């Protein structure tokens, strides 16, 4: 009888709706003429009752008789909120380290991002009120900055808050490695039950990857059902996420869609000033003015400023004509590659380039050194001797550090992998912003 009801329903429901809403759908029990359906969560239950009540009722009555009835139940998620127990102080869950510089204070607000900014400020006061928030814009317009600013704010104002920030690509990689290692349940527990706020950046990476979309779909539903905040960042609108499960798209659309527009020249100038302030570097206004005329996007402004900082650090001077020649490639300045690498590391690990080449051994500095050496040898193909020169360390120390990082990677250490990705991302940003 159960099978008959399911088959009859499937015939009456479009394939698209079936795939969106009925994949978890099952019959738990039939008691006399009362059918108890079961679905994955309360959100789907709610949708089915609102949208498909009539069809389900008709099918049940056709098969079991006119006086038959039904109800939809959902699987309870156990211990969503109390898993750590009241006396155990929960530690922040940071899947990828948030960039501490991505704060609301460091964000320039103008007409182009005012709405997005206000929504995120509201969300910082009432997480879960607008849920989900789907933040989209062209590349480099500040989505990651804004989303991480919310994460940083929540962590600071409530140290018990568990913030999970990761790109959809990281989500997918972790999921595949959990499947491979047979611990998919741990993976699910981590994201579905532990996180109080889930930020998924660059959702567009999952285009065409249905298995990861399905996993994310269930994660999304569980978190949403628990009333916890979800933020999705994307470089396009939900409708433009071609080849995404339609059920995912409809989840995104049911939330608040927030767009960051393109900043104008004045905004770009202010962003340039803010970046200099964040980097504790003084660059003349006329140079920043020049940059904001040349580049129309904060990421490019950021890249250009990093390049100027690298030059200023190396040569101790900078003026408008030098800036123009550096940025327009009129005359190539000598390569300041090493400095650039150290700048990138310093930015990510929140220290200075001088710290990295010093003998200081504080945790973040040692980490920056070690990961930077690995990156230079393995990704940039520099010789261990050259790397020793850049980092002002002996050849054997480079070899040892590279081995250590290799081991961490082989052991599946996510933090190291994420740092390497961040270096990659930042150095690409650099490459974008430069014409050298
Ligand atoms: N309004 C702003 N105020 C200050 N800095 C900004 C602003 N918008 C962007 N930036 C800076 O520009 C750089 C690029 O921003 P971000 O990475 O957040 O963009 P994105 O939209 O997430 O890019 P992508 O689409 O590639 O993921 C960052 O260094 C960020 O701090």
UniProtKB/TrEMBL annotation:
Complexes and interactors: Oligomerizes as a right-handed, spiral filament on DNA at oriC.
Domain named Chromosomal replication initiator DnaA C-terminal: residues: 337-405
Residues that hold ATP according to the record: 140, 142-144
Family: Belongs to the DnaA family.
Record keyword Lipoprotein present: no
Keywords in alphabetical order: ATP-binding, Cytoplasm, DNA replication, DNA-binding, Lipid-binding, Nucleotide-binding
CDD domains linked: AAA, Bac_DnaA_C
Annotated region (Domain IV, binds dsDNA), positions in chain: 313-436
Domain comment, as recorded: Domain I is involved in oligomerization and binding regulators, domain II is flexibile and of varying length in different bacteria, domain III forms the AAA+ region, while domain IV binds dsDNA.
Protein name, UniProt field: Chromosomal replication initiator protein DnaA
Subcellular location, record wording: Cytoplasm
Keyword Cytoplasm: yes
